[in-house]
Amino acid sequence: MKFAPLLKSAALVTAVALLPATTAGLAQVEGRAGPQFGKVFATYQRIKASYVEEVDDEVLIKGALDGMLAALDPHSTYLDGEALERLETLIDGNYEGLGISVTMEDGAVKVISPMRGSPAEKAGVKAGDYITHLDGELIYGLSLDEAVAQMRGPSGTPLRLSIFRPGREEPLDVTVTRGVIELEPVTYELQPGAIGVITVNEFSRDVGRDVLGAMKAMREEASGRLSGLVLDLRSNPGGSLDEAVALSDLFLSKGSIVSQRGRIQAENIVYKAETVYRGDAAQGIPLIVLIDAGSASASEIVAGALQDQHRALVMGQRSFGKGSVQTLMPLTRDSALKLTTARYYTPSGRSVQEGGIDPDIRVPQLSDPDAAKRSKLSLRESDLRRHLINEVGLDDKELETDKQDDPRFQLTAEELEEQGIDDFQLHYALETLRRAHGTAVASK
């Protein structure tokens, strides 16, 4: 997502500055779509006069705005009050709740991914789960904002989730104790063989700086030299476009990182290397990027840039496929539009929309006993109602290849557990770097 600068301080100035243009726009609308606006006003009048209960104007207007934005795509929305506060809180990376990224599918709340290290992940919530009840109360039919508001709450308080999990016959109940989700955007660990593993959980502020700090700390721990690096972007739902550019630039010394193209000239931008950081901060160090179906948006920008520039080997499973940019546009002091304003493209000109990033080496998560079942029913951008269509036109059969069994990977979760392997994808990446020690792992 792209955020309009100085959101709070500029909100009133922006609203006032738009008034003349808005008035002119309404004059044009009168000629083109006057009859349609007449229907809207007539509906408003009928509801006010005849609905079984009295309805506040605020409820009707917000409903009209929500409907207008929902007719566009899954990511454009109207935000005010608590919804806007929640978004601003997520940008800062701190809130109290469960720590899951969710979407609405046919009136049901579906988990895109639990955030790494969150209370939800620790309690066993999985990507692809459908949440049907909260503390025994049915939430089907609520808006996404209403459902999320009920999941939020003071740290330390329990919440019982009733979950339908594809692949299982019976629903299950999971109790999650809410926590302070201080999303550590970046965590790291030095593995045997002086291989650094950096996990980027979400793209909030200063991710590029935090990754640079992680590399410095691991170099010191490894007595000055890393032999390989894994950048783990799995289950990372994205965030700030600027931070995705910064993280990519950390490993690139030339060429473009990502381009975005919109309907208006101001949205046509090319982001280039060497604009945030000088040189490759990991020069000469083999790099593997891990992705999966929960890697979306900003994660896909980084994976696509490093893949196209031949700086990294991308490993794991096909990513989510969200190739659009949302801009937060203030309307008043306490309301804004989150509006899709552009599509983005990798350095080679690929659109990520629908198809996502296809890894160089597909590696299933064999250490998860339910992974195969969930993979066949996993939710991606192409499954969302009213998603933007990729201009090239994608073959659905090609997009489904990652849901087929790979004869190279046949170990069961139980067999891996006996070997002490609880994360097969990471294990495979580490072993690849150890085998390739001293050689480049990215194709040239």
Structural features, described:
This protein has about 450 residues and is an alpha+beta fold. It has 3 domains: about 10-85, no CATH class; about 95-180, Pdz3 Domain (Roll); about 185-435, 2-enoyl-CoA Hydratase, Chain A, domain 1. Helices cover about 35% and strands about 25% of the residues. It is built from 12 helices and 20 strands. The protein has helices at about 5-50, 55-70, 80-90, 120-125, 145-150, 205-220, 240-250, 300-310, 370-375, 395-400, 415-420, 425-435; strands at about 1-5, 75-80, 95, 100-105, 110-115, 130-135, 135-140, 160-165, 170-175, 180, 185-190, 195-200, 230, 255-260, 270, 285-290, 315, 325-330, 335-345, 360. Strands 1, 2, 14, 15, 18 and 19 form a 6-stranded mixed β-sheet that branches. α6 (about 205-220) runs parallel beside α7 and α7 (about 240-250) packs parallel to α8. Mean pLDDT is about 80; it is low at about 5-25.
Keywords for this entry:
6-stranded mixed sheet; 33% helix; 444 residues; 2-enoyl-CoA Hydratase, Chain A, domain 1; 12 helices; single chain; alpha+beta
Any chance you could write out the topology, listing elements then pairs?
Elements lengths: L1 E2 L3 H44 L6 H14 L6 E4 H12 L1 E4 L2 E6 L2 E7 L4 H5 L6 E5 L2 E2 L5 H8 L6 E7 L7 E6 L1 E4 L3 E6 L3 E6 L6 H15 L6 E5 L8 H10 L5 E7 L6 E4 L14 E5 L6 H11 L4 E4 L7 E9 L2 E11 L15 E2 L8 H6 L19 H4 L13 H6 L5 H12 L9
Parallel strand pairs: 1-18, 12-13, 13-16, 16-17, 17-20
Antiparallel strand pairs: 2-19, 3-10, 4-5, 5-6, 6-7, 6-8, 8-9, 11-12, 14-15, 14-19, 18-19
Helix pairs in contact: 6-7, 7-8
